[in-house]
Amino acid sequence: MKKRWYDYLWIAELIYMALGFFNILFAWLGMLFFCIPLIISLIWGTKGYCNRYCGRGQLFGLLGGRFGLSRKKDIPKWMKTKWFRYGFLIFFFLMFFLMLWNTYLVFAGVQDLGQAVTLLWTFKLPWHWAYHGTLFHPGVAQFAFGFYSVMLTSTILGLITMILFKPRSWCVCCPMGTMTQLICKAKSGKQ
Amino acid sequence: MGIRKKRRAAVNGDICVACGCCVKVCPLSAIQIRHGVRADVDPERCVGCGKCAKECPASVIEIQEVQG
Hints:
The complex is a heterodimer of chains A (191) and B (68). With 191 residues, chain A is mainly α. Chain A contains eight helices and two strands; from the N terminus they run H-H-H-H-H-E-E-H-H-H. Chain A has a two-stranded antiparallel sheet. In chain A, strand 1 and strand 2 (123-126) form a beta hairpin. The radius of gyration of chain A is 17 Å and the shape is globular. The relative contact order of chain A is 0.19. Chain B has 68 residues and is α+β, with helices and mostly antiparallel strands. Chain B has a single domain (6-66), classed as Alpha-Beta Plaits (2-Layer Sandwich), CATH 3.30.70. Chain B is built from two helices and four strands, in the order E-H-E-E-H-E. Chains A and B meet through helix 3, helix 7 and helix 8 of A and helix 1 of B.
């Protein structure tokens, strides 16, 4: 099948993850991966982002498929239930708002900037080498650390599910995918 | 000599996550994502090759034998 430009967006995903090792402020670019799927689903009522443009999905497909890093087994039934998918979405949302709260505390001057990336919402990894000061308020950097934590955590979870199950198993419980599907359902229900 | 039955992909729409992995691998463009909600098989085009079922991360596609 003929390759299109968007079939190479896995490179953008790799570059994004790599840039976070050098300067944490690049984490802000991740807002694109967050906003574009929502905009597509809200305006056109499709999951065009998941279907075509998701670089992360492409990366898992490549590593698990062509590079053979996946066991290619079915995911457990409980992982595809609505309970789990919606529960995971709510959990992700709560963690996201907690990250926003921490950012607010830095902006408000109540809390100092934490130069760490929190992995799996628990483990704080020192990440000071990727922070070289900023012209902006330290709160801007705090958001970058928090957002990169979310992105790195979901990439690691995606890699684990890729290895254990099928290459793109992450798509089944991806909070962005679940959220955009809910928007599409609401939009198609209205028509 | 027995007549070979036709095979066709069938999607369990209730648990389909509409990721579009099936669309990418279908050699006959016989599967589409409808309104971002679920995958939909075109029965006229599908020959039941099973590529979509193999690819589906949620394993919600089955290859079924059909009459005619």
